[in-house]
Design a protein that fits this description.
The protein is of the alpha+beta class. Helix content is 24%, strand content 35%. The two termini are 19 Å apart.
Length: 191
């Protein structure tokens, strides 16, 4: 499995209802797209008290079953429409280490958090994976995340920890964690 995220930073005075409307009108297009494990339609609003974002952004996060699904999506008309509306994004990808969720609760996610951290040179990658698996399981079992995912990227040696939450009070309160509102989740396997 492979994760993918692109983000469009929008002006501070941007009318975010445009993005809300776009998600409402087009968000269901991938609800039954089988190459996709899930897509979370994420929005950050400047000065939102719940997510504490410093900027406006539209930043969908995907988990694909394989690279073919990701490749085919980037080459499709829907992605072209996105590019024509918002610009040419840098698409970040990370091979997944673990994805765990509360059974059937993904549709209940209202908030998400994304933390990107550096992996130190010469790290024991097996130990890193074990730690990330434990952190993901603990996030779901103890911190009440509806989904916890960890993935890594070996070109710049970064690790991403992506979590989805039912409520804002569960969001991590750290300057290096980006929080989002979840506008819609396409989850073909979950219905």
């Amino acid at each position: 499995m492979i994760t993918m995220q692109y983000s469009f930073t929008l002006p501070a005075d941007y009318d975010m209802s445009i993005v809300d409307r776009r998600v409402k009108e087009k968000g269901h297009a991938l609800d039954n797209h089988q190459p996709l494990a899930f897509k979370a339609y994420l929005i950050a609003r400047k000065d939102d008290p719940a997510t504490r974002s410093r900027e406006n952004a539209y930043a969908p996060f995907y988990l694909w079953h394989d690279c073919d699904g990701l490749r085919d999506f980037i080459g499709c008309a829907g992605f072209d429409g996105l590019v024509n509306s918002f610009g040419w994004p840098s698409v970040r990808t990370w091979p997944a280490l673990i994805c765990t969720e509360q059974g059937g609760a993904l549709s209940l996610a209202r908030f998400a958090s994304r933390e990107v951290v550096s992996i130190a040179p010469f790290s024991d990658l097996g130990a890193l994976r074990s730690v990330e698996c434990e952190l993901a399981r603990a996030a779901v079992q103890e911190a009440h995340a509806v989904l916890a995912l960890s993935a890594f990227e070996p070109t710049t040696w970064t690790l991403v920890r992506f979590r989805m939450w039912r409520d804002a009070k569960s969001l991590p309160d750290a300057a290096h964690v980006q929080a989002y509102d979840v506008q819609h989740v396409s989850n073909p396997a979950g219905g």
